[in-house]
Amino acid sequence: MGHSDDSAVIDIRQVIYENRRKEENDAVADKRQKSAPEPILYGGFDSVKETARVLISKHYHDIASANILFVSRSKASKSGGKVVPGKVSKVSPLYRYLTAAALAEQQYNGTTIKEDRPEADFIMEVALDVWNEMSPQQRTALVDHLLARCVGVEDEKTGSMKYSIRSPQVQEFAEVAERNGAWNDDLNDMRASLRDK
């Protein structure tokens, strides 16, 4: 009798083990289904383009001839746990080729001949979910910030423009500034600029 009881215990343990594995597998499958990320949707962005056009004509003469592709994304990305409302990038040769049709569509409603299509020098990407929550002043400031990162320098030998991206002049941690104040020239310049506003 003891022998058959042992086999019944083993059978029950096996059933319990298999049921737990099935429940765990079901839970993992449910988690995968629930956590599937929402796709990021991209499109053109005429309101950013118009804001940039006005700012470039007033403040950014060095990039006035640059071809900028303005793109919206449905949801902001994050970097270091912080929301990134927008970013600008210098376009690599591969992306210049790949973005030519989109840029022609934005600038000329796609009416250019393939060989005459402009190639993008920069791509400006702005998150719609953040943009929609911003005031008009904040929207202008965001586009202004992104344009300030774009630099154009004329090559003296060829006369062609060379474009690049620059980092913001001031990068500091709030706690360092709190402990040490405007401890360098860049922070002093920033403090003076903020006083004027």
Describe the structure.
The chain is an alpha+beta fold. It folds into three domains: 1-36; 42-166, Zincin-like; 170-197, no CATH class. Helices cover 50% and strands 18% of the residues. The chain is built from seven helices and eight strands. It has helices at 2-34, 46-59, 93-108, 128-131, 136-148, 174-180, 185-195; strands at residues 42-44, 68-73, 77-79, 82-84, 86-90, 122-127, 150-154, 161-165. The chain has a four-stranded mixed β-sheet. It has a two-stranded antiparallel sheet with strand order 3-4. It has a two-stranded antiparallel sheet with strand order 7-8. A hairpin with a 6-residue loop joins β7 and β8 (161-165). The longest helix is centred in the N-terminal third of the chain and has 33 residues, at 2-34. The radius of gyration is 28 Å and the shape is extended.
Domains (count): 3
Average pLDDT across residues? 82
Counting copies of identical and different chains, the oligomeric state is single chain
> Uncertain spans, ≥5 residues at pLDDT below 50?
none
Question: Given the structure, what is the number of helices?
Answer: 7
User: What form results from the Cα inertia axes?
Assistant: extended
Strand content: 15-25%
Rg (C-alpha, Å): 28 Å
Described by strand count, sense and barrel closure, the largest sheet is: 4 strands, mixed
Structural class: alpha+beta
What is the CATH class designation of the largest domain?
A: Alpha Beta
SSE topology string = HEHEEEEHEHHEEHH
CATH architecture of the largest domain: 2-Layer Sandwich
- Main-sheet strand order equals 1-2-6-5
> Total number of β-strand segments?
8
Alpha carbon gap, first and last residue: 92 Å
**What name is given to the CATH topology of the largest domain?**
Zincin-like
DSSP helix fraction: 40-55%
